[in-house]
Amino acid sequence: MAEGLDPRKRRTIEVVDYDPAWPALFDEIRAGLEQLLEGLVLEIHHIGSTAVPGLCAKPKIDIDIVLHSAAAIPEAIERMQATGDYIYHGDKYRDGMWTFTTGRGSRGLRLYLCAPSTATHLRRLLFRDHLRCHPEAAVAYGALKRKLVSETADDWDYYTGSKGPFVAGTERRALAERIESVISGRDEICRAIVEDLPEWFGIPAAREAYITAATALPMLACIAPDGSALGFASVQVLTAAAAEIHVLGVRRDWHRCGIDRALVDAADRFAAGQGCRYLTVKTLSPARPGPAYEATRRFYDAVGFVPIEELPMLWGPDNPCLLMLRPVRSPAGSQEQSDV
Q1: Phi, psi of 132 (to 5 degrees)
Q2: Are 112 and 99 a contacting pair, CB within 8 Å?
Q3: What is the DSSP letter of 246?
Q4: What interhelical angle do 119-133 and 156-176 show, nearest 10?
Q5: pLDDT tens digit sequence for 182-194
Q6: Is 104 exposed, middle or buried (0-12, 13-18, 19+ CB in 10 A)?
Q7: What is the chain's mean pLDDT, rounded?
Q8: What CA–CA distance (Å, rounded) separates 181 from 223?
């Protein structure tokens, strides 16, 4: 047993072979939840390892219950508590997921109430769907889980924490696969995201100019399983040799998930498809210090852009511009994403 683990709180970590009965069990539970929460529910999803065919799992059914709005959460909590069948744990991780369980340890049910587009819920769908579509990833995840069970004496923190890098890497790959061209609704996508990021788009006139441009320019966006946009890049062909990332933004609750890198890679493929040899971007110059744009410059530096020229008057004296450039890395003539 891991040092410091209280034996009185020890709960066995049990991982079993996939059970073909799990989907039918979920369907039965879902029918009861739809009746209990009638009028409040938008969608009910089977998540977790028991939702991936062939994957070994703890025999605990995980379910996300997406309500019509956040305003429905209090009533849904009240109805579930009134049954006396569930243990209520609240919003334990302050991520908008209100948790109920039955059973103990590896067995029973774990149910989460959330509002539409809640980030944790969407991440679970991304992870589940990626494993469903990539059997080799599911096999690797199953092997990791069995290895961790063999290494720990029911230390849940060790077991869960050690899966973290695999889960994060899988989510990044899943997000990269969800970059697509957007034809309609470009202005709505741009507005929703830039208005979520006042540190970068705080000047109203500039923000409106970006939104206007986004309507006309080719757009690449990372689309979540529920159809919402998590991030976008508007790309403009400047010359026969160069294309520009005119604007790039990622929803605040999806920062540090790899979407920004995936969008730059998609813009690179778009530029290659147009026959361009260079990709450029403009950002705020270090002549005007500020933590938000310092982070932006570090990001562009990390993905291979180098500063080329200061343009102190392009955006006005209070907002000096820095032009950055990198060679296109995709194969010359690549057609991927070139039809946006």
Answers
A1: -65, -35
A2: yes
A3: E
A4: 80
A5: 999 999 999 999 9
A6: exposed
A7: 93
A8: 10
